[in-house]
Structures are given as structure tokens and as C-alpha cells.
Amino acid sequence: MPKRSEEMLTDVWTSLLLVWITCVPYTSMTPIISQSKSLQTGSTALLRGLVEGQRILSRAKRGWVWNQMFVLEEFSGPDPILVGRLHTDLDVGSTPIKYVLAGEGAGTIFAINEITGDIHAMKRLDREEKAEYTLTAQVTNRDTDQPLEPPSEFIIKVQDINDNPPQFVEGPYRASVPEMSQVGTSVTRVTATDADDPVYGNSAKLVYSILEGQPYFSIDPNTAIIKIALHGMDREMREEYLVVIQAKDMGGHMGGLSGTTTVTVTLTDVNDNPPKFSKSLYEFVIPEELGIGQPGGKVKANDRDIGENAKSTYNIIDGDEKDVFEITTDAQTQEGILRLKKPLNFETKKSYTLKVEAANIRFDPSSGAPFKDTATVKIAVEDSDEPPVFSKPTFVLQVDENAPINTVIGTVTARDPDVTGSLVRYFIDRHTDLERQFNINVDDGKITLAKPLDRETDMWHNITVTATEIRNHSQISRAIVAIRVLDINDNAPEFATEYEAFLCENGKPGQVIQTVSAVDKDDPIQGHYFEYRLIPEMLNNPNFTIKNNGDNSISVLAKHDTFRRQKQEMYFLPIIVTDNGNPPMSSTNTLTIRVCGCSREGIVQSCNVEAYVLPIGLSMGALIAILACIILLLVIVVLFVTLRRHKNKPLIIKDDEDVRENIIRYDDEGGGEEDTEAFDIATLQNPDGINGYLPRKDIKPDLQFMPRQSGGPNGVDVDEFINVRLHEADNDPTAPPYDSIQIYGYEGRGSIAGSLSSLETASSDSDQNYDYLREWGPRFRRLGELYSVGESDKET
């Protein structure tokens, strides 16, 4: 038989064998597996012998024979479950053998009977935790534990049962789809997972269905894709839907496990609704004094869409005088705001009619719907009391600077634009005319001159004129009046600066000493032209002459070269300058010319007369040094005299340094009566401590007025002590004539007056008799009555 046919027969035989293994009970599966050869090799050899028609006399010896190893998960019977049995050809009864099991779970999950080779599962198994176990079997001598055959490896597979329901790990879901989508439009896809074996049986075969959400949505049972099932789903009617999805295993058949999840589907907005005005006619009343750019009214077109689809823009598409108004869109409220572009005038036009359009910014051209709406706006202009209106916003007037007082400069005019036409009065805002140089006629607006003007001081005067209605003073208008002061020739020309010329002694005749120019505060229209000349008394000046340069300047020239400083150090040259005004104005200006010593190149070196001041030939530096020394000596002398006078100053103590007139505060509290070191007050308590003498601190001591020493006993007569001090003060010619209060802390001893305190008195008020007060006359009668009443009250 050809080789191709032999391979086909081998595959058929292998398939039949696998089918038989699957169909028979697990415990009766007894495939023969050789230790050295595989099942496929043995089966191929067997089939090959059958094809060739040869008698099979022998085959390779198999050392192991056992059942196919499978075990059901989650089995929980009272006894361990039999998984299978191991058998070897050596087990013929003559040799004591023992079966040994090793590998994953051996001894804990799986146990083997050493004699029979039966394998039992000792624990409940879960395929989702572990699907198969790899074990090793070996036959040993029971007596010697010596291996009789090499170990063989086999696998015990855990067979799946449907014990896990489907789960939506990513749920719950949220999805969105545009409104008005076509039927069959995909919304989203959900996914459920099943932990059971997807290969064995239908435990992991899932089928999807919708429990809630019909008739709006559908789901593909296999792919779990959710789709639109209803036409014309409008967001404006309902925006959100809750869909409940179920996933069931076992292919959806009865007995299968299921799981559910929710899908929240939101319809997104599309621009399928045009804007719509709430009414077709809007009417507004706007006062005519409304400012430019101010809002005069609002219109609004509502749109059922949201977001960008609901935004609209407003335009004025028709109406009379559309350029008077404009309409803008409020981005926050989506309102159309009507604003003024030009001023309103009730007297000119009293009403306006406009056509306003609202259109969506975004729209779908394929929809064909008109995404716009129109409305009519009628505006009535309300008459207002307007302020006067000047004929021009700015007036420009002119006046000569020499114009007399009360000259009429010009006139400003204003009128009341209202229908009633009130009269107008004119005033000058004095804040713009602080010097009150102008006046205005309140009735006709004529501006007159109040003070003389000087163009050279102020060329322009800007004042503000107000116009006020007579019947309503609050209606005021303002206009600017610019008054230009025209120039007249009222200023004489003068030198541009104070010139001081220098003339060299060795100068040559005709040498230019100084170039002189003039200025004029006036501003003639034809420009300035100055004429220079010497005064008539110096027309034939022997020393100097002038030359016109043709550019409104002159050059002063020397006539000779015999100028000497010793002869004359300085010259004064008066020059008359005349302008070309009408009438011409002139002034006399003096040019000072100093004669100086110069080098050969004509450079000025010195302009003072040193020959006369310093005949011995001292230079200027030496003179300055001598003067500095003299000044230093004078300063030293003054300091010496001042120090001497300060030393001889009498030592008179100032008033603020006299301790008798100052209050000295101490922050320390003191040690009480036991403290004898803080302050010695023995001097105040006993004047004898210093022999009765207290030195004065307000005058300088003098020996001739030393007080006499008291040689009395320790007992001191205070009265005598005070009299002595008083006598010394009265007879002291050096003591200043001021009064002072001397405070003594010594009370004295043995005073015949006794104590003034009433605490030690032996008498009381009750012992007093005030009857003698009545005998003192009528002045003391009332006092006596009062004391008598007091005594009677006490007795009572």
C-alpha cells in the first residue's frame, strides 16, 4: 500500500481511539502506554502490520498499564474519589512490589494505594485555580525499596463544570450617540468574561440579550454590540436611557449562569432646531438723549438645542435708516442688544421700524431646515429737554494786544433744539479765565476785553463758554473759544545777551572785537530787520567803529593799536538798535570792552592791571597764599580769645540745674525702715550735723560772707536757724533777687504750739460750746444757730 494511504489509515485509527476514550467512563479507561514508546508509535506499528497482511508474532513489551487520569472539579462526596489505577507487568504475584507516587499534590491532594496502585483525590479541586497536575509513578521492591523500573510521568487533568457565572469587569458602561441617528447605528460594545473552560463543553459560551431598553436599542447576541433600534430618537424629548444587558453561558440554554450590567446611553445634541423669537413684534421707547453705544432694548430668540448648536447671531436686515442702530449678541444670555450708533433727534424723526434676524452660528446644510428667524422691532423716540446747541463746537477769535478795554472780540451763538425753544444765557467758565481777562454778554454772547493783553506773555487764550436755558438751568452746553492775540510793535529790540568784549593791547587796527546780534519779543509778519548805529555823541568815536554784517548782526572793530591797560582798562560803547516795525522801536545797549594782555597769537592771558597793584612783581598765586595765611592767623586769635572768656565765666548754676527746683524720681523702692544705706536724711532731721550751715548752690561762695558757727548744744532752735539764714540772704549782695521755697524735713523739738492733729486731742465735739458765736454780732448769728441746731440734734 502506498505511503499516503498508510498515513490516512493511521489518522483514522487514532481518531477512533480518541473517540472511544472520550465515550467510556473515566474509571474504565485503560489505554495501554509503553514506557519506551508512545501510543502513536505502537498504533502505527499495529496498523502497518494489518495493512501488509503479515502476522504479528510479537510487540514491544509495555511495563506500565493504568487508567486514563481525569477528575471532576468541585466533587464533594463523603469518600475520596477514585481517579485511576496504575498497573505493571511485574505484578504477577511472585515479586513483592510497591507503587510510589511523586509530583504535584502527591501525598496531599492525591494518594496512591501502594499495593493495588489505585489513585484517589483527597481534596475538593477547582479547575479555575489549577487545571492539571503533573505526577511521577514508580514501582519499587516492597522489601528492599529498590526501583524495579524507571519512573514514568503522567498528568491528571481537572475536568471543568459550569460553576462560574459571566461577569462584566468594565461595567457599568456609559455611551453616547447623536440624536436622530439611523436604525442600526452602533452605540457601544460590552464584554463579559467566564472563568470556566472555554474548550470543554458550553460552560464559557456566552449569549447576550437586553433585559431593559427596548424598543430603543438592540444587541448582537454574539458580539455584544449595542445598536439603535428606533428611528427618530430626539434629544429634546428624552436625553438619557438606561439599558440593562444580560450575558448567559451554556449558549443561553436553560440551566446556564448569567450576569448583568447597565449601559447609560446619552443622546448628544445636533443642530436640528432653528432659533425662534418669542414674539414677532418688539416695541421700545428710547429717549432722544440716549448716549452713543448705550443699549436701547433687548430681543431674544430661543433655541431648543444646547451648546454651540444653540448659539445665534443677530443682524438688522431691513428698516428705515438702519445705520442709526446696531444689534450685538450677548455671549452669556444669547440676547440681541439694540444699541445706538448715531444721536437721536425727536424733532427730526420720532420713530423707527427695523427687521431683525436671528441665525444659528452652526447648522447642518444637509438638513435643509431654515436655521433662522425674523422679528419686527418698532422704536419710538421720546422727546427730552435737551441742552442748548452751539452753532460751532469751537470758536476761534482774534484781538490786537493793544486793544482797549471793552473791545468786542467776537460773538458765540447757541439755540435750544427743543420744540418749545427756550431762551439761552451765556457765561464764561472762570476756571478757564482765572485772571478775568474777558467778559461775555449773557443775552447775545458777545465777548469783550476786560483787561489789556500782552502777546509776548500769552499768545493764545482758551476759555470755555457755557449756554444755559432760562427755564431749566440744569441744561447746560459748553463750547471752547480760542482767542488769538495779534502782535503789534510794542517792544524795542535789544542785545541777544550781555556782551563783554576783550581787546588785545597788541591788536591791529580794523580787528573784529565782537559780533553783536539783537532779539525782539515782537513777531512781525514780514520778519525782523534791525538797524545798528552809534549814539550821536560817538559818531566820530576815535577808538571803535561798527560794520553791518547783513544778517541782523554787526561787528565791532578797533580803529588803532595803541590800547594800554595802564592808560584805560575798560571802554563802554553805546549802540542804538532799531527795528522795522510801525512805529519803529529802538533801544540803546552798551557793549563793555576790556583791554587785556594777549600772546603773539592773539590769545587773551590777563585782563587786570597787575603793574599797579603789584609793583614789586608778586604773582597772583603768591598774593593768594599771603591772604590765606593772614586769615588763618585771625581765626587762631579769635579762638584763643573765646577760650579765655569761657574760662573766666562765673560758676553760676543754671536754674534747670538747681536740685532744689527739680523733681528727682527714683525707680527703686528702698529697703524700708531697716535700710540705712540708701539715703542719709540725718542732715534734714538734724541741722546740727553740719554745724547749722547749708551751702548755697545758686551763687559763687565768698569767704567774707561765711556764716558764723553755732556753738550751742545739740538742741537747735529752728526759729533762730531760719532767721539766721534769712538775714544772710538779705545781706548777701551777690545773691540774685529771686524767691525760693526752702523745704525742711525737720519739725523741731518741744514746740509750745503742740500738735495740730485732731487724733490726739482729749476733747470731743460734744464738749464744745458755740454760744459765744451769737455774741460776736449779727454776722456770726447764723453760724451760731447752725451749730446750736447740730447740738440739739445730737442730744435728741
UniProtKB/TrEMBL annotation:
This is Cadherin domain-containing protein. The chain crosses the membrane at residues 12-33, 612-641. The keyword Transcription regulation does not apply. InterPro entries: Cadherin, Cadherin-like_dom, Cadherin_CS, Cadherin_Y-type_LIR. It is found in: Cell junction, Adherens junction; Cell membrane. Residues 88-168, 169-277, 278-390, 391-495, 495-617 form the Cadherin domain. Keywords: Calcium, Cell adhesion, Cell junction, Cell membrane, Glycoprotein, Membrane, Metal-binding, Repeat, Signal, Transmembrane, Transmembrane helix. Signal peptide: none annotated. GO terms for molecular function: beta-catenin binding; cadherin binding; calcium ion binding. It comes from the Eukaryota. Cadherins are calcium-dependent cell adhesion proteins. GO terms for cellular component: adherens junction; axon terminus; catenin complex; synaptic cleft. It comes from Oncorhynchus tshawytscha. The keyword Cell membrane applies. Pfam families: CADH_Y-type_LIR, Cadherin. GO terms for biological process: adherens junction organization; calcium-dependent cell-cell adhesion via plasma membrane cell adhesion molecules; cell migration; cell morphogenesis; cell-cell adhesion mediated by cadherin; cell-cell junction assembly; homophilic cell adhesion via plasma membrane adhesion molecules. It is a single-pass type I membrane protein.
